[in-house]
Design a protein that fits this description.
single chain, about 55 residues, mainly alpha
Length: about 55
């Protein structure tokens, strides 16, 4: 009988993305998560593809 591994989500960390965040912060962009969430909720593509509540 084959061994089944538990389904654990793996979140890869992209070092390039980390550098982009650091560059954005160094450039003076200080968006809060609430501001980003508000902006994202107003985007049409996100509204179409966001998960059901």
């Amino acid at each position: 009988m084959p061994v089944q591994l538990p389904l654990i989500p793996i979140i890869p960390i992209d070092s390039d993305e980390t550098q982009n965040v650091e560059i954005s912060q160094n450039a003076g962009h200080d968006f809060t998560l609430d501001e980003v969430q508000d902006w994202l909720e107003r985007q049409a593509v996100h509204q179409v593809h966001k998960p059901c509540p």
